[in-house]
Amino acid sequence: MPLYESLRPLPELRVLVTAGASGIGACIARAFHEAGSRVHVCDIDRAALDRLVTETPGITGSMADVSVAADVDLVFDDVRGCLGGLDVLINNAGIAGPTGPIESFDASGWERTVSVNLNSQFYFARRAVPLLKESTADPVLIAMSSVAGRLGYAFRTPYASTKWAIVGLTKSLAMELGPQGIRVNAILPGVVEGERMDGVIASRAAALGLGVEQMREEYLRKISLRRMVSASDVAAMALFLCSPAARNLSGQAISVDGNLEYL
Ligand code: NAD
Protein backbone atom coordinates (compact mmCIF):
# COMPACT_ATOMS: atom_id res chain seq x y z
CA MET A 1 0.00 0.00 0.00
CA PRO A 2 1.47 3.45 -0.86
CA LEU A 3 2.27 5.32 2.35
CA TYR A 4 -0.20 8.13 1.64
CA GLU A 5 -3.05 5.63 1.54
CA SER A 6 -2.38 4.85 5.18
CA LEU A 7 -3.74 8.34 5.94
CA ARG A 8 -7.30 7.17 5.27
CA PRO A 9 -9.38 5.60 8.05
CA LEU A 10 -10.08 1.91 7.56
CA PRO A 11 -13.30 1.32 5.59
CA GLU A 12 -16.53 0.39 7.38
CA LEU A 13 -15.43 1.50 10.83
CA ARG A 14 -18.34 1.53 13.27
CA VAL A 15 -18.29 5.01 14.80
CA LEU A 16 -20.32 6.64 17.59
CA VAL A 17 -20.22 10.46 17.86
CA THR A 18 -21.79 12.05 20.95
CA ALA A 19 -23.63 15.36 20.47
CA GLY A 20 -23.24 14.71 16.78
CA ALA A 21 -26.35 16.39 15.36
CA SER A 22 -24.75 19.80 14.79
CA GLY A 23 -21.53 21.75 15.18
CA ILE A 24 -18.18 19.95 15.27
CA GLY A 25 -19.84 16.59 16.02
CA ALA A 26 -21.97 16.72 12.86
CA CYS A 27 -18.92 17.69 10.80
CA ILE A 28 -17.05 14.68 12.20
CA ALA A 29 -20.05 12.38 11.62
CA ARG A 30 -20.33 13.48 7.97
CA ALA A 31 -16.57 13.14 7.43
CA PHE A 32 -16.53 9.55 8.68
CA HIS A 33 -19.66 8.76 6.68
CA GLU A 34 -17.97 10.08 3.52
CA ALA A 35 -14.90 7.99 4.35
CA GLY A 36 -17.05 4.83 4.28
CA SER A 37 -17.65 4.41 8.03
CA ARG A 38 -20.96 3.40 9.59
CA VAL A 39 -21.87 6.28 11.86
CA HIS A 40 -24.31 6.62 14.76
CA VAL A 41 -24.78 9.92 16.57
CA CYS A 42 -26.69 10.93 19.68
CA ASP A 43 -27.94 14.36 20.62
CA ILE A 44 -30.37 16.17 22.92
CA ASP A 45 -31.84 18.25 20.07
CA ARG A 46 -34.57 16.30 18.26
CA ALA A 47 -34.90 18.75 15.36
CA ALA A 48 -31.14 18.81 14.67
CA LEU A 49 -30.96 15.02 14.90
CA ASP A 50 -33.86 14.58 12.45
CA ARG A 51 -32.21 17.07 10.08
CA LEU A 52 -28.88 15.23 10.07
CA VAL A 53 -30.28 11.72 9.54
CA THR A 54 -32.63 12.99 6.81
CA GLU A 55 -29.89 14.92 5.01
CA THR A 56 -27.37 12.09 5.29
CA PRO A 57 -29.05 8.73 4.78
CA GLY A 58 -26.89 6.04 6.35
CA ILE A 59 -26.16 7.99 9.52
CA THR A 60 -28.39 6.77 12.37
CA GLY A 61 -29.25 8.66 15.54
CA SER A 62 -30.56 8.42 19.11
CA MET A 63 -32.07 11.09 21.33
CA ALA A 64 -30.09 11.38 24.56
CA ASP A 65 -28.91 13.78 27.21
CA VAL A 66 -25.29 12.68 27.51
CA SER A 67 -25.23 13.67 31.20
CA VAL A 68 -27.88 11.07 32.07
CA ALA A 69 -26.48 7.55 32.54
CA ALA A 70 -29.83 5.90 31.69
CA ASP A 71 -29.96 7.77 28.35
CA VAL A 72 -26.44 6.60 27.58
CA ASP A 73 -27.47 2.99 28.22
CA LEU A 74 -30.27 3.41 25.66
CA VAL A 75 -27.79 4.84 23.13
CA PHE A 76 -25.74 1.67 23.46
CA ASP A 77 -28.86 -0.45 22.84
CA ASP A 78 -29.20 1.48 19.56
CA VAL A 79 -25.48 1.13 18.80
CA ARG A 80 -25.73 -2.64 19.15
CA GLY A 81 -28.85 -2.63 16.95
CA CYS A 82 -27.58 -0.24 14.25
CA LEU A 83 -23.84 -0.98 14.17
CA GLY A 84 -23.58 -4.40 15.85
CA GLY A 85 -20.45 -3.30 17.73
CA LEU A 86 -18.07 -0.34 17.92
CA ASP A 87 -14.60 0.50 16.61
CA VAL A 88 -14.46 4.25 17.37
CA LEU A 89 -15.99 6.36 20.14
CA ILE A 90 -15.83 10.11 19.68
CA ASN A 91 -16.73 11.66 23.01
CA ASN A 92 -17.51 15.08 21.56
CA ALA A 93 -20.28 16.49 23.78
CA GLY A 94 -19.50 19.66 25.69
CA ILE A 95 -21.20 22.90 26.65
CA ALA A 96 -19.63 26.30 27.22
CA GLY A 97 -20.94 26.62 30.79
CA PRO A 98 -21.30 29.96 32.57
CA THR A 99 -19.01 32.96 32.02
CA GLY A 100 -18.07 35.25 34.91
CA PRO A 101 -16.17 35.59 38.16
CA ILE A 102 -16.34 32.43 40.27
CA GLU A 103 -18.21 34.11 43.11
CA SER A 104 -21.04 34.97 40.72
CA PHE A 105 -21.82 31.33 39.86
CA ASP A 106 -24.53 29.31 41.55
CA ALA A 107 -23.91 25.59 41.97
CA SER A 108 -26.26 24.61 39.16
CA GLY A 109 -24.17 26.19 36.36
CA TRP A 110 -21.02 24.55 37.67
CA GLU A 111 -22.69 21.17 38.15
CA ARG A 112 -24.36 21.18 34.72
CA THR A 113 -21.00 21.89 33.05
CA VAL A 114 -19.33 19.05 34.93
CA SER A 115 -22.23 16.69 34.14
CA VAL A 116 -22.35 17.37 30.41
CA ASN A 117 -18.63 17.81 29.77
CA LEU A 118 -17.03 15.32 32.15
CA ASN A 119 -19.58 12.82 33.50
CA SER A 120 -20.67 12.08 29.94
CA GLN A 121 -17.10 11.09 29.05
CA PHE A 122 -17.21 8.51 31.84
CA TYR A 123 -20.69 7.20 30.99
CA PHE A 124 -19.79 6.67 27.32
CA ALA A 125 -16.27 5.33 27.92
CA ARG A 126 -17.38 2.69 30.41
CA ARG A 127 -20.04 1.38 28.01
CA ALA A 128 -17.82 1.64 24.90
CA VAL A 129 -14.69 -0.03 26.24
CA PRO A 130 -16.11 -3.61 26.31
CA LEU A 131 -17.17 -3.13 22.65
CA LEU A 132 -13.81 -1.59 21.66
CA LYS A 133 -12.07 -4.59 23.26
CA GLU A 134 -14.03 -6.85 20.87
CA SER A 135 -13.09 -4.73 17.82
CA THR A 136 -10.54 -6.08 15.37
CA ALA A 137 -10.18 -2.73 13.54
CA ASP A 138 -7.50 -0.88 15.58
CA PRO A 139 -10.08 0.60 18.01
CA VAL A 140 -9.87 4.25 18.99
CA LEU A 141 -11.37 6.50 21.63
CA ILE A 142 -11.21 10.24 20.96
CA ALA A 143 -12.14 12.73 23.68
CA MET A 144 -12.96 16.33 22.78
CA SER A 145 -11.09 18.67 25.09
CA SER A 146 -10.20 22.26 24.20
CA VAL A 147 -7.38 24.75 24.27
CA ALA A 148 -8.98 25.45 27.68
CA GLY A 149 -7.61 22.00 28.61
CA ARG A 150 -4.05 23.26 27.93
CA LEU A 151 -4.21 26.88 29.13
CA GLY A 152 -5.95 28.56 32.07
CA TYR A 153 -9.13 30.43 31.10
CA ALA A 154 -10.20 33.21 33.49
CA PHE A 155 -13.97 33.66 33.91
CA ARG A 156 -14.61 30.24 32.32
CA THR A 157 -13.48 28.16 35.28
CA PRO A 158 -16.15 25.42 35.04
CA TYR A 159 -15.37 24.85 31.35
CA ALA A 160 -11.58 24.91 31.77
CA SER A 161 -11.75 22.56 34.78
CA THR A 162 -13.70 19.96 32.81
CA LYS A 163 -11.47 20.25 29.74
CA TRP A 164 -8.29 19.72 31.81
CA ALA A 165 -10.00 16.74 33.49
CA ILE A 166 -10.69 15.23 30.06
CA VAL A 167 -6.95 15.30 29.31
CA GLY A 168 -6.30 13.47 32.60
CA LEU A 169 -8.93 10.90 31.71
CA THR A 170 -7.43 10.47 28.22
CA LYS A 171 -3.88 9.94 29.41
CA SER A 172 -4.99 7.51 32.13
CA LEU A 173 -7.24 5.51 29.78
CA ALA A 174 -4.47 5.33 27.17
CA MET A 175 -2.32 3.56 29.77
CA GLU A 176 -5.18 1.35 30.94
CA LEU A 177 -6.30 0.28 27.45
CA GLY A 178 -3.05 0.32 25.47
CA PRO A 179 -2.19 -3.30 26.32
CA GLN A 180 -5.52 -4.29 24.70
CA GLY A 181 -4.62 -2.37 21.54
CA ILE A 182 -7.05 0.52 22.12
CA ARG A 183 -5.66 3.98 21.36
CA VAL A 184 -6.95 6.97 23.32
CA ASN A 185 -6.28 10.58 22.38
CA ALA A 186 -7.75 14.00 23.06
CA ILE A 187 -8.28 16.71 20.47
CA LEU A 188 -7.96 20.29 21.73
CA PRO A 189 -9.69 22.64 19.30
CA GLY A 190 -8.94 26.34 19.61
CA VAL A 191 -11.25 29.09 18.44
CA VAL A 192 -13.61 27.31 16.03
CA GLU A 193 -15.52 29.62 13.69
CA GLY A 194 -19.30 29.30 13.86
CA GLU A 195 -22.40 30.06 15.93
CA ARG A 196 -21.09 28.69 19.19
CA MET A 197 -17.96 30.85 19.08
CA ASP A 198 -20.10 33.88 18.17
CA GLY A 199 -22.04 33.23 21.40
CA VAL A 200 -18.87 32.74 23.46
CA ILE A 201 -17.41 36.00 22.13
CA ALA A 202 -20.66 37.87 22.83
CA SER A 203 -20.88 36.54 26.43
CA ARG A 204 -17.26 37.37 27.12
CA ALA A 205 -17.63 40.85 25.63
CA ALA A 206 -20.63 41.42 27.92
CA ALA A 207 -18.80 40.02 30.98
CA LEU A 208 -15.79 42.29 30.34
CA GLY A 209 -17.82 45.34 29.23
CA LEU A 210 -16.31 45.38 25.70
CA GLY A 211 -17.79 45.62 22.19
CA VAL A 212 -18.30 42.35 20.31
CA GLU A 213 -16.01 43.30 17.39
CA GLN A 214 -13.28 44.43 19.77
CA MET A 215 -13.60 41.10 21.58
CA ARG A 216 -13.37 39.19 18.26
CA GLU A 217 -10.15 41.06 17.37
CA GLU A 218 -8.72 40.23 20.79
CA TYR A 219 -9.36 36.54 20.14
CA LEU A 220 -7.56 36.68 16.76
CA ARG A 221 -4.57 38.50 18.27
CA LYS A 222 -3.96 35.50 20.54
CA ILE A 223 -3.62 33.09 17.59
CA SER A 224 -0.21 32.87 15.90
CA LEU A 225 -1.81 32.16 12.52
CA ARG A 226 -4.31 35.03 13.13
CA ARG A 227 -7.29 32.97 12.00
CA MET A 228 -9.90 30.75 13.58
CA VAL A 229 -9.97 27.04 12.82
CA SER A 230 -12.93 25.30 11.19
CA ALA A 231 -14.93 22.27 12.29
CA SER A 232 -13.46 20.51 9.22
CA ASP A 233 -9.95 21.00 10.62
CA VAL A 234 -11.06 19.16 13.77
CA ALA A 235 -12.81 16.43 11.73
CA ALA A 236 -9.63 15.95 9.66
CA MET A 237 -7.67 15.31 12.86
CA ALA A 238 -10.27 12.78 14.01
CA LEU A 239 -10.02 10.96 10.65
CA PHE A 240 -6.24 10.95 10.86
CA LEU A 241 -6.31 9.53 14.39
CA CYS A 242 -8.40 6.62 13.06
CA SER A 243 -6.09 5.93 10.12
CA PRO A 244 -3.31 3.32 9.97
CA ALA A 245 -0.80 6.20 9.82
CA ALA A 246 -1.71 7.01 13.44
CA ARG A 247 -1.35 3.43 14.68
CA ASN A 248 1.31 4.38 17.23
CA LEU A 249 -0.36 7.57 18.46
CA SER A 250 -1.92 7.21 21.90
CA GLY A 251 -2.12 9.18 25.15
CA GLN A 252 -1.76 12.50 23.32
CA ALA A 253 -3.54 15.82 23.77
CA ILE A 254 -3.40 17.25 20.26
CA SER A 255 -4.11 20.93 19.62
CA VAL A 256 -5.88 22.05 16.44
CA ASP A 257 -5.76 25.79 17.08
CA GLY A 258 -3.35 27.72 14.82
CA ASN A 259 -1.14 27.94 17.93
CA LEU A 260 -3.35 29.78 20.36
CA GLU A 261 -0.78 31.47 22.59
CA TYR A 262 -2.90 32.51 25.58
CA LEU A 263 -6.56 32.81 26.60
P1 NAD B 1 -22.29 23.04 19.95
O1 NAD B 1 -22.61 24.01 21.04
O2 NAD B 1 -22.39 23.47 18.54
O3 NAD B 1 -23.21 21.76 20.23
C1 NAD B 1 -23.10 20.59 19.47
C2 NAD B 1 -24.24 19.67 19.83
O4 NAD B 1 -24.24 19.33 21.23
C3 NAD B 1 -25.64 20.26 19.57
O5 NAD B 1 -26.28 19.50 18.55
C4 NAD B 1 -26.34 20.14 20.90
O6 NAD B 1 -27.72 19.83 20.78
C5 NAD B 1 -25.57 19.01 21.56
N1 NAD B 1 -25.73 18.93 23.02
C6 NAD B 1 -25.62 19.93 23.91
N2 NAD B 1 -25.87 19.47 25.15
C7 NAD B 1 -26.13 18.13 25.03
C8 NAD B 1 -26.46 17.10 25.95
N3 NAD B 1 -26.58 17.35 27.26
N4 NAD B 1 -26.68 15.86 25.47
C9 NAD B 1 -26.58 15.59 24.14
N5 NAD B 1 -26.27 16.53 23.23
C10 NAD B 1 -26.04 17.79 23.67
O7 NAD B 1 -20.82 22.46 20.27
P2 NAD B 1 -19.50 22.49 19.34
O8 NAD B 1 -19.02 23.88 19.23
O9 NAD B 1 -19.73 21.68 18.14
O10 NAD B 1 -18.46 21.75 20.32
C11 NAD B 1 -18.26 20.36 20.31
C12 NAD B 1 -17.14 20.02 21.27
O11 NAD B 1 -15.96 20.73 20.92
C13 NAD B 1 -17.44 20.40 22.73
O12 NAD B 1 -16.91 19.43 23.60
C14 NAD B 1 -16.70 21.70 22.90
O13 NAD B 1 -16.35 21.98 24.24
C15 NAD B 1 -15.48 21.46 22.03
N6 NAD B 1 -14.84 22.70 21.60
C16 NAD B 1 -15.52 23.58 20.82
C17 NAD B 1 -14.89 24.77 20.44
C18 NAD B 1 -15.58 25.77 19.58
O14 NAD B 1 -15.00 26.85 19.36
N7 NAD B 1 -16.77 25.51 19.06
C19 NAD B 1 -13.58 25.03 20.85
C20 NAD B 1 -12.92 24.09 21.65
C21 NAD B 1 -13.56 22.93 22.01
Fold blueprint:
Elements lengths: L13 E5 L4 H12 L3 E6 L2 H10 L4 E4 L5 H15 L4 E4 L15 H28 L5 E5 L12 H21 L5 E7 L5 H14 L3 H10 L9 H11 L11 E4 L7
Parallel strand pairs: 1-2, 1-4, 2-3, 4-5, 5-6, 6-7
Helix pairs in contact: 1-8, 3-4, 4-5, 6-7
Report on this model:
This protein is an alpha/beta fold. The protein has a single domain (3-192, 230-256), classed as 3-Layer(aba) Sandwich (Rossmann fold). Helices cover 46% and strands 13% of the residues. It is built from eight helices and seven strands. It has helices spanning 23-34, 46-55, 69-83, 107-134, 157-177, 195-208, 212-221, 231-241, and strands at 14-18, 38-43, 60-63, 88-91, 140-144, 183-189, 253-256. A seven-stranded parallel sheet has the order 3-2-1-4-5-6-7, with helices on both faces. Helix 3 (69-83) runs parallel beside helix 4 (107-134), helix 4 packs parallel to helix 5 and helix 6 packs across helix 7. The protein is globular and about 55 Å long. The chain starts with 13 loop residues before the first strand and ends in a 7-residue tail after the last strand. The structure holds nicotinamide-adenine-dinucleotide.
